[in-house]
Amino acid sequence: MEIKYYFDYNATTPTDPRVVDEMMPYFFETFHNPSSFYRKAGEARHAVEQAREKAAKLINAEPREIFFTAGGTESDNLAIQGTASKLKEKGNHIITSTIEHPAVLEACKFLEKKGFEITYLPVDKNGFVNPGDLKKNIKDTTILVTIMHANNEIGTIQPLKQLIEIAHEKGVFFHTDAVQAVGKIPVDVKDLDLDMLSFSSHKIYGPKGMGVFYKKHKVKIDPLIFGGGHEKGLRSGTENVTGIVGLGKAAELALAEMEEEEKRIRPIRDRLQKAIIETIPESFVNGDTEDKLYNTLNVSIKYIEGESILAMLDGEGMALSSGSACSSKSLDPSHVLLALGLKHEDAHGSLRISLGKYNTEEDADRLLEVLPPIVERLRSISPFWDKK
Ligand code: PLP
To answer: Does residue 201's CB lie within 6 angstroms of at least one atom of ligand 1?
Structure first.
């Protein structure tokens, strides 16, 4: 069935047609290898460097601090495994949080098997890391703190500046997975004094399979991928010129349009949040109701399964997520919601609504029209609702 109402922008975004237009010439007229010597190759190289400038501008970095990768997952792995490899003689301790994306958590678990010690900081009921906890857990062997900027499931925005200051007081590098923050809210690596950051193209209306790894110039880490020495030796492999050009354009558009987007989207999200809680009994918001990404809303609807709601909404041409979209193939309840202290059954009844560029007030009207009767129908056949 065709999707008429898309509410899953944190999972991925449609590529902006202006991004596609910008990419097209690099499939045909200027398909050349940027490392080759003829003039056309020089044009491809120039396009790559222009995109690097645009990506740098979005996060207020220097172009030389931007490295192109194949996505947020690769950038996260590069930060974590690259630091571990480079600094293993200095220490073997890494600090992260329990609500990270699997790209961070699984990289940490892999290192754990190789003898690294990982501390997973807990979060409070709204999803915030306590800066005092970070302070307490840094020790002489700590080589990296990696804590996400904004959470993909509940939208919580961490007090990054404070957390980074704490790490730096002890001389420890700080990496943030900013995949959900960059392009939605202003992110300034200089102001934050960040050492490393990851972001992804397909969350900001760019092509899939493209990402950025930012590294402060003086920070040195090891590569994950070895080869011809591209990206100053940090990420070998012939550059994905079309993807890089698309990412650059998406970054430029995000910077120009971010503020307006927030003004338009926040009221739609706030209206949905209020109306869902008011019209559906025994439902509640996960994470903070105010202090979070303006496009994200996560609610638990008690006594039914999120997947059943999703299936029925799909029948209405609506796309949403339950738990984490990236790993929703798994039937385990969301690790993020469990970390907030939710009971398994309430975590199972969660819905994530994430809004974006093409959502309108009418989309929200339609969702508010179809969701309550679906919940009522599912509850009428739920043994848990009967027994409550
Ligand atoms: N980190 C976060 C917070 C995400 O939401 C995602 C994707 O959902 C990723 C990392 C992975 O990014 P990519 O899909 O570009 O590999």
So the answer is: no
Q: Encode pLDDT of 233-271 as tens digits.
A: 999 999 999 999 999 999 999 999 999 999 999 999 999
Tell me the per-residue pLDDT of 127-181, one tens digit each, with 9 for 90 and over. Answer: 999 999 999 999 999 999 999 999 999 999 999 999 999 999 999 999 999 999 9
- 273 and 228 co-located in one domain: no
- Cβ–ligand 1 distance for 177 under 6 Å, the answer yes
The verdict on 241 and 351 lying in the same domain is: no
Q: Are residues 41 and 162 in the same domain?
A: yes
Query: CA 98 to CA 102: how far, in whole Å?
Result: 10
pLDDT at residue 330, as a whole number: 61
Centre of ligand 1 from the C-alpha of residue 232, in Å: 24
Same domain, 196 and 237: yes
pLDDT band for position 328 (50/70/90)?
very low
Cα 313 to Cα 294: distance, rounded to the nearest angstrom: 23
Query: Of 198, 220, 253, which residue is a domain's last?
Result: 253
Whether 232 and 288 share a structural domain: no
Question: Can you tell me which residue has the tokens 């992260």?
Answer: 96
CA–centroid distance, 372 to ligand 1, in Å, is 31
Q: What is the CATH number of the domain that holds 211?
A: 3.40.640.10
327 has pLDDT over 60 = no
Domain count, the chain: 2
256 CA → ligand 1 middle, Å: 23
Q: Is 108 a catalytic residue?
A: no
User: Which residue range(s) make up the domain with 30?
Assistant: 17-253
Best of 292, 326, 328 to mutate for ligand 1, by most ligand atoms within 8 A of CB?
326
- Does residue 180's CB lie within 6 angstroms of at least one atom of ligand 1? yes
What pLDDT is stored for residue 341 in this prediction?
95
Please say if the pLDDT value at position 325 is more than 50. no
CATH of residue 361's domain is 3.90.1150.10
Same domain, 268 and 249: no
Pair 127, 229 in one domain: yes
**Sign for the pseudo-dihedral over CA of 211, 215, 216, 217:** negative
Structural domain ending residue among the three candidates 229, 253, 277: 253
Report the distance separating Cα 74 and Cα 231, nearest Å: 14
The residues near 173 (Cβ < 8 Å, ≥ 6 apart) are 83, 143, 144, 145, 167, 195, 196, 219
Residue partners of 236: CB distance under 8 A and separation at least 6: 223, 225, 226, 227, 228, 229, 230
Mutational test site, ligand 1, from 151, 152, 327, max ligand atoms within 8 Å of CB: 152
